[in-house]
């Protein structure tokens, strides 16, 4: 006899059987499934694991990357952010090409294959000081500077750029496509009324959904995801996942969904805000897997909730995202990346094999557009038949 969820609204076992036969959960089912508690959570995790195994087998991936925080100035003021600095703060900065280059040299020596160019959004539109800093480098728009930095990466290294510049317009994405293997931007939440995003023009959900759509229209492999625990309801969380799914169904090219947990940081307006629990993460990851089905790559950052990597595996992830041997997670600098050996051990104890991937997921490597064929000659020597990095080229 099937158990019922805590809300008693659905028969959990029957619902999960239907989800498994169908291969995905409906929105109504997801609204209920994301609320399960107690031992019902184990049933949820099992269903998510079964679907993940069907699509991904026992392979779990990560990307060896270097993080280039091109500028920590931003026109938004998210309530949880410690990365951002006001332009008159002594640490406010735009990296010069020389600073970027010196990191690239070290990263390449350490075997990185992805350069994550990540930065605050359009600071030059809000702050004269940011505009001035950019002008000293010879630019009036941050976008043009990003473009040239990506070209520097392509010209001087064998690594592949992945830019996350937040919400972008179609023409901006089109320009960056020529110099990026893949790109990314978190949706975070579909709820437009979160205090965490008050006064943040780039965090308007419609604006961010447009960016995801442009990526699909332009055929740019794209990484996006949700940030949980910033004041959204459980239904918002489900709706955020479906908003991404709708874009993906229509345009394709969402290569990866990140389920990221909010971490409270001192010196922010959300310093005292409660963090999501481990179980909140687990049920969100599991429901994400059930919504997106077996093909999607689902990631949880391994540094934000250390010590419980295996729980996330059992909840249905198949990727750990980018891990850097060189640079910290600048968004969460207090949370060091785990050693790859540690992750390897956590994976192999459960029968998974940890493999290195490139910033472009294997599914999209055979499908590069004309503009991206510049990357083909650097991809081919790195990957094997599974389109993952050759085992002999992976550094642990
Ligand atoms: S989280 Fe991103 S968009 Fe928000 S303030 Fe920080 S850098 Fe800007």
Class per helix and strand makeup: alpha/beta
Question: Could you tell me which ligands this complex binds, including any ions or cofactors?
Answer: iron/sulfur cluster
Strand segment count: 9
- Fill in the CATH topology: TIM Barrel
Summed up, the domain count is: 1
The average pLDDT is 93
Low-confidence stretches: 1-5
Q: What distance separates the N and C termini?
A: 47 Å
For the biggest sheet, the summary is: 9 strands, parallel
CATH superfamily: Aldolase class I
CATH architecture: Alpha-Beta Barrel
Computed over alpha carbons, the radius of gyration is: 20 Å
Helix content: 25-40%
Could you describe the 3D structure shown?
By secondary structure, the chain is of the alpha/beta class. The chain has 14 helices and nine strands. Strands 1, 2, 3, 4, 5, 6, 7, 8 and 9 form a nine-stranded parallel sheet that branches. α10 links the parallel β6 (254-261) and β7. The longest helix is centred in the middle third of the chain and has 18 residues, at 234-251. It is globular. It binds iron/sulfur cluster (SF4). Residues 74, 76-78, 81, 83-84, 120-121, 166, 202 line the site of iron/sulfur cluster (SF4).
Fold topology:
Elements: H1 12-22, H2 27-33, H3 40-56, E1 59-69, H4 97-109, E2 114-118, H5 128-136, H6 142-156, E3 160-164, H7 170-177, E4 182-184, H8 205-218, E5 222-228, H9 234-251, E6 254-261, H10 278-292, E7 298-299, H11 309-314, E8 319-323, H12 340-349, E9 353-357, H13 362-365, H14 376-379
Parallel strand pairs: 1-2, 1-8, 1-9, 2-3, 3-4, 4-5, 5-6, 6-7
The structure holds iron/sulfur cluster.
């Amino acid at each position: 006899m099937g158990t019922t969820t805590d809300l008693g609204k659905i028969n959990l076992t029957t619902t999960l059987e239907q989800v498994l036969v169908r291969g995905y959960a409906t929105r109504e089912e997801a609204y209920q499934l994301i609320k399960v508690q107690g031992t019902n959570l184990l049933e949820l995790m099992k269903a998510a694991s079964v679907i993940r195994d069907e699509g991904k087998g026992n392979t779990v991936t990560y990307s060896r990357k270097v993080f280039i925080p091109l500028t920590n100035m931003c026109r938004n003021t998210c309530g949880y952010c410690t990365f951002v600095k006001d332009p008159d703060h002594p640490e406010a900065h735009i990296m010069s090409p020389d600073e970027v280059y010196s990191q690239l040299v070290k990263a390449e020596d350490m075997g990185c294959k992805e350069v994550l160019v990540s930065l605050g959004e359009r600071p030059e539109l809000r702050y004269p000081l940011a505009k001035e800093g950019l002008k000293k480098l010879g630019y009036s728009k941050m976008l043009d500077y990003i473009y040239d930095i990506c070209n520097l990466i392509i010209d001087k290294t064998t690594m592949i750029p992945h830019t996350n510049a937040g919400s972008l317009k179609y023409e901006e994405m089109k320009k960056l496509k020529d110099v990026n293997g893949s790109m990314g931007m978190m949706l975070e939440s579909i709820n437009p009324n979160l205090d965490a995003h008050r006064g943040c023009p780039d965090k308007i959900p419609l604006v961010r959904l447009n960016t995801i759509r442009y990526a699909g229209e332009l055929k740019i492999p794209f990484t996006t995801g949700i940030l949980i625990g910033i004041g959204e309801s459980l239904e918002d969380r489900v709706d955020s996942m479906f908003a991404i799914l709708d874009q993906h169904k229509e345009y394709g090219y969402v290569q990866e969904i990140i389920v990221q947990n909010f971490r409270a940081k001192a010196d922010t307006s959300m310093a005292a805000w409660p963090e999501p629990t481990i179980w909140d993460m687990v049920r969100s990851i599991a429901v994400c897997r059930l919504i997106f089905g077996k093909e999607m790559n689902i990631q949880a950052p391994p540094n934000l909730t250390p010590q419980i990597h295996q729980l996330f595996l059992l909840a249905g992830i198949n990727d750990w995202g980018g891990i850097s041997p060189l640079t910290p997670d600048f968004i969460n600098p207090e949370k060091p990346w785990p050693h790859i050996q540690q992750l390897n051990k956590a994976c192999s104890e459960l029968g998974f094999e940890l493999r290195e991937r490139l910033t472009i997921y294997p599914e999209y490597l055979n499908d590069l557009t004309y503009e991206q064929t510049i990357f083909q000659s650097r991809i081919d020597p790195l990957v094997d038949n599974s389109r993952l990095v050759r085992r002999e080229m992976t550094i642990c």
